[in-house]
Request: fold
Amino acid sequence: MAAKATPVTEMSFEEALAELETIVRQLEQGDVELEKSIAIYERGAELKKHCEARLKSAELKVEQIVQGSDGTPKTEPASFD
Reply:
């Protein structure tokens, strides 16, 4: 992990996922000292939350696409019931 890591909120989904995968590999290898393990675990939790939010946003956008009566896709406003 870089000394000055990019703030999670400024990362794209792909960037956050790639860093999260790196963190998971480091933790799975088990050769990271305890303090660093805790720090990267916390970073990983932030990245996971960010990825989940980005996926939810994308899911809402996809749900807006519905099949029109003529068989062509059309877009409708999302309802947040």
